[in-house]
Amino acid sequence: MIVSIHRVDPSGAISLMAANVPYSNLQWTRRLSTCGEFAAELACAFPGEWPGRYLLTSDERDEVGVIEKVTASEDSSGNACSISGRFAECLWARWVAPAGGSTAKGANWRQAVTAALTNWHMSDIPALSMGSGTSAATGSSYSLVAEQGKSCMESVYAVTFDAGSRPLVSYDRDKDPGHLVVSLVDGVDRTRGQTANAMCVFALSLGTADSMEYSGDYSSMCSEVLAHASKNEGQSDEVSVSRTVAVPGFDAGAMWKARAFEDVSSLIDQDANPNAALVDSAGALRAYDHQAAVSIDGKISCAGYLDTWDLGDLVEAELPSLSLVAKQRIEEVREIWKAEGHTVEATVGTKQLSRIARAMIGRR
Fold it and tell me: Would you state the pLDDT for residue 235?
């Protein structure tokens, strides 16, 4: 994979600094529930001045890296340099909501996220173009709320994960040298229960995995959430609503029933009075925090990667030792390029999603 480094000036203008930068080791970690990251050991000196505002791009992956850390050493035998950072979605982590929070609205979650990505960032990032999957607002019935002190990135990822999607920032110097392109990429159902897409099953017996490691923690799994919201209308008048909401994935035949309590008042627009529909919607978002922590790590065959399976896709993983077939999304993909070749590892499951703060509530 060929990588290049670009300089970003304080106005946001992007210019190529070094093409085809040599390296001996490159790690590329893509994540569904939060911003991914990269690290590289260069086979040359850093090709610019440090510190600086630099982006790293590749010819084979859509992600754009923001160089955040550089280490270097010099001795009589020569120089060594390594760089690392997060992908460009982290640019939205640099903006946080002011006192009282911020709200981005649209007719649905996709429009609300598009509005947030368009407006909730610092002024020095490169110019943006909204790409595939984004949508301009045509209404205001859905609200994405960033609580005081919360970043845009954190708020957006909470929403996109619930929708089976993820934000992606890319850069094409040939097509549009002056803009970063912001897209929303939807995961694809590749389980055996559907026929519209190519199936993907990770299993040693099928030769699609070299090793599999499973962890399933059901100690905090609940069957239901008691969602409560209240609002003071005056000194004596208070609107209070409580609703019981089922937790997705609960199986009464294999799991113990348990109840959790969640105050969802902060998820309801300050201008609206709590009612059954609003509390049900907010409770459904909080219910994801009470699912089991399931993780399946595997050394996966590269065959079909990016064609028949990708980050965010819903796939199956077989573990005969547990008589288990898990249907989960691909949460993380770790790629490594060395002189010996290219390897791919993937994590399937929800382990890394525990206690994500849900930021959106949709109201019809």
Answer: 55
Omega cis (within 30) before 248: no
- Is residue 185 within 8 A of residue 157, CB to CB? The reply is no
State how far the Cα of 94 lies from the Cα of 89, in Å rounded to an integer: 10
Average pLDDT of 15-26? Answer: 96
pLDDT tens string 155-200? 999 999 888 899 999 999 999 999 999 999 999 999 998 999 999 9
Q: How far apart (Å, rounded) are the C-alpha atoms in residues 1 and 63?
A: 13
DSSP string, 210-272: EEEEEEEE-TT--SEEEEEEEEE-SSS-EEEEEEEEEPTT--TTTS---EEEEE-GGGS-TTS
Cα distances (Å, whole numbers) of residue 31 to 50, 87, 101:
28, 10, 26
pLDDT class of 249 with cuts at 50, 70, 90: confident
What is the structure's pLDDT at 362?
A: 34
Closest CA to 281 of 220, 345, 363, 173: 363
